[in-house]
Amino acid sequence: MEYKKLGQTNLKVSVLGFGGCPIGGHGWGRVKDKDSIAAIRKALRLGINFFDTADTYGLGHSEEVLAKALGNYRKKVIIATKGGVRWDPYKKKGYYDLSPYYLAKAVEGSLQRLKIDCIPLYQLHYPDPKTPISETMEALKKLQKEGKIKYIGCSNFSPELINEAQKYGRLESSQASYNIIDRALEKSIIPTCQKWKMSIFIYGPLSQGLLTGKYDLNTKFGEDDRRSRRSYKNFHGKKFRANLIIVDKLKEIASKYHKTSVQVAIRWILDNPFITNAILGIKKPEEIEENLGALGWKLAYKDRAMLIKTALKTYKEWGIK
Q1: Of 57, 96, 122, 203, which one is the catalytic site residue?
Q2: What is 3-209+260-299's CATH topology?
């Protein structure tokens, strides 16, 4: 396993992170807790020490499963959870709340579910336009002083909001989407995080499974899978058809290295020196071993560039922005 420093702290995190969204049991098809627990324990044995989750994943279920699987290792690994998304049971949808009152309540809930005394990395899940970031950061600094959270991170923040937040406290990390077909952070988040010496954690490295190469035009997702929703544009219409062309090129390059599409897609991300780690959503233990095949080698510059060129050319030809 490879490790990198977390921001300006003395912690080192594995370059592959265990993503806890699927183990919440909602939105990714059928998930069994026994498989989730086996996957977490296998990840632990193979050197993964960074476990990313959120209180909204399965409305707390992901945190509970993670705590059960880690057992006594809960205090030895780096658990990164997120807060700031509230669930409205009447409207049956979430909304953003980074108010001091709610964050204090959310942190207490996560501590209880994770069965730990202090959260190593507490991340603000999404921006909340109603709450001044100054109030949010002051609330988190108070929680730090109380020993309930160790370090602060953010997720889905714009460069402008990161800069503003850093005036009132210290953010050690930013979590954002990045993969072969989604490279927006290269011109926005990366320069900002370099400026503040922050870590960058990547979610969606396989674009919700698209870059695994498992899907084709005949693929149908069930109602319990979020990818069936039209809002997941990568899996619908002409964008899905264009994406499959890019995936074909990914498969072609993978065959040169005797690797899988998954391994090349992950390696493509890890070869970017500004990226700290790639967070992989895991449901079963066998997925861990495939992910580890992304370590210990490099993708040739020409092949990395070819994947970018193919994505840009394909989207241009299909009129996709």
Answers
A1: 57
A2: TIM Barrel (3.20.20)
